[in-house]
Amino acid sequence: MRNKCAAVVTLALLLALHGSCSLSHDSPEDGVVSFKMMRSTSGSWEVFGTNDLEMAGALRWAEETARSVARIIGAADSNAAVGKIVLPPASVATETPVCRIVVTNGIIVRRLDLPSADMLSLARNTPYLCRILMENPVGSGGGGTGLVAPEWLCVGIAQNLYSANKAWNTSEMLQRWRDGRAGSLRRLLDTVQKVGDGRHDAVYCGTIVTWILSWPRGKECVRAIARGETGEGGRVSPEWLLQWRDGCGSASDLDEAWDRWVLSQRRLVYEVGLVTPALVRELEMEMYFWGSDGRALTASDLASGSIDGTVRAAAAARSMTTRLLAAGRDVVFQEAASAVADFLDAVADPKISIKRRREQLSKAERAIRAAKRRADELWPRAFDGHEAEDIW
After folding, report:
1. Per the domain annotation, does 143 fall within a domain?
2. Torsion over CA: 184, 187, 191, 192 (sign)
3. Contact of 287 with 295, CB cutoff 8 Å
4. Is the pLDDT of residue 369 over 90?
């Protein structure tokens, strides 16, 4: 869904771009076949291909992504540079994108060959574009190669270009953290830095980068990682991160800071009105408690049975936080949160009858089902037994 959102944004701006670029016949290589070349008005990007519509879309995608990356971590360098996006059939890429960066006559050439040019593929290949934008050229003569930014960092930066992605990732991260699936910060860093088939968990990569960028010196830290300045074979450890994070004197301090930050994301709204499936699940879990005897209490237990004072007090406190959870969300979620809070109020009040508690629970369950359907519309496949596209 997140990739589709990016594709829709690109498509919406396509026609406006088509009139603001120059079109000529050129070739990405010195070959017999001549392909069209489209250049941005700024001259910083060129696209090679045969389909004007696809070329215009790729050009817009490249320019928008480059601006977003520069906004997030700063400009890659101050030297003269040009980016080249090569589309089929001119592209040398067959299954996966091919990244190249060279310095020719003092000009940095960042080239990305793509195996496909459709809108969804462009969005899916954004980490590769981030990679050539963050790659550091070596040498000033012709043919100088570059220091490649870590794959997990490129995925993480790509995940931070759109607020919807950040909302999804932090919400899912909070759910995994609460389920005990996330592990410590050290374990997460080890996970995203494993050398494998190039597939990275976008939730982990994106959330770690979001956290680092929230620090006062976060941009500097990200640039240092991209330049390979970790001093540990290019790997990032909690100990290395300490120099960039104020207020932490040890790796355990940093781990605690990470936990606090993840928990703080519960009420943070990255995009007004946006609701994720994980947020709906969290709302539903507000109606589950632990009794004083250590027994798990479901919403049905609370609606139909006796309730001890400890649970009543906890329900009263939860009612207030549940209403706060709805701030900045869409109307459907706000109604669901209000219904859940009303049920918690009924649980907290010893004067409310069992019949009334059951009525409030029934109303809350209907509202939650509506919120799930709404989240399902926003994030397809989230409720059909599959994860959304979290792997790049």
Report:
1. yes
2. positive
3. no
4. yes
Rounded Cα–Cα distance for residues 284 and 305 (Å): 19
Domain-ending residue, one of 216, 231, 264: 264
Looking at residue 230, its pLDDT comes to 86
Residue with tokens 């010196």: 217
Can you say whether the dihedral through the CA atoms of 12, 15, 17, 23 is positive or negative? positive
Per-residue pLDDT tens digits for 154-198 = 999 999 998 878 888 888 888 888 777 888 999 999 999 986 656
Where in the sequence is the domain holding 52, given as residue range(s)?
A: 2-148
How would residue 2 be classed by pLDDT, with cut points 50, 70 and 90?
A: very low
Q: How far is CA 28 from the centre of its chain?
A: 32
Query: In percent, how much of the chain has pLDDT > 90?
Result: 38
Nearest to 375 by CA among 160, 167, 161: 167
Residue 357 has pLDDT above 90, yes or no: yes
Strand order in the sheet with 45-49: 21-26, 35-40, 45-49, 81-86, 107-113, 98-104
Per the document, the length of the chain is: 392
CB contact burial 280-305 (16+ within 10 A = b; e otherwise): bbbbbebbebeeeeeeebebebbbee
Burial of 237-266, coded b for 16+ CB within 10 Å and e otherwise, reads bbebbeebbeebeebeebbebbeebbeebe
Rounded Cα gap, residues 118 and 123, in angstroms? 9
- 292 part of a folded domain: yes
Residues 246 and 284 in one domain: no
**Chain centroid offset of residue 298 CA:** 33
